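Appendix B. Chain record.
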Amino acid sequence: MLVSLRRYLIAGLLVWLPLIVTGFIIKLLVDLLDFTILLLPPAWRPEAILGFSIPGAGIVLAVVVVFVTGVVVANIVGRKLVSVGESIVRRIPLVSSIYGAVKQVTETVLTDGGQAFRKVMLIEYPRRGLWSVGFMTGVAVGEVQDRTERDVITVFVPTTPNPTSGFVLMVPREEAIELDMTVEDGLKFVMSLGVVTPLQSPADAPAPVARGQGKS
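Structure tokens predicted for this chain:
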């Protein structure tokens, strides 16, 4: 009786838990993006026009704002305006440091030429004999490269289950193993506490079942 009850409870959790967590995360993102509605004048907001608020309207507005901004900065006049604005921001002491760091990270991650979060790496961390999954975020140059006198790369090792925090490590290139799994699979592996293991190695793939076999 207890075994059957436990089996039914686990079966129910397997259905509801992913749905609840997914719904919670989506609601959190929707509520966060809905704050972009505050960019509109009060008379232009949905509750003023329709008499009630529309959940998710902030997402549409955010997409429109980003798209229009991209169209504007894609031409010479737009790039000139952005350049003038950035020159003003970079003259503000504290703001310039924060903006410059965020700008550089954004360009590295989003541009096609950047190497950040393009490869999943396997490194021995936090000590020899223990392995951690990380993401290559760049190639160390300048003082780090000169002082170590080794070809090192920068690897971000995320924490579990929150991949937004972690450790930045300078790893000799020959001591880092590049994995075949995609960045998405690597994030799934980290966020699932190692439960979701990507099937990438051909040796791990199940043998094909010949036609006619498997039937009694």
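Further analysis of this model is presented in Appendix C.
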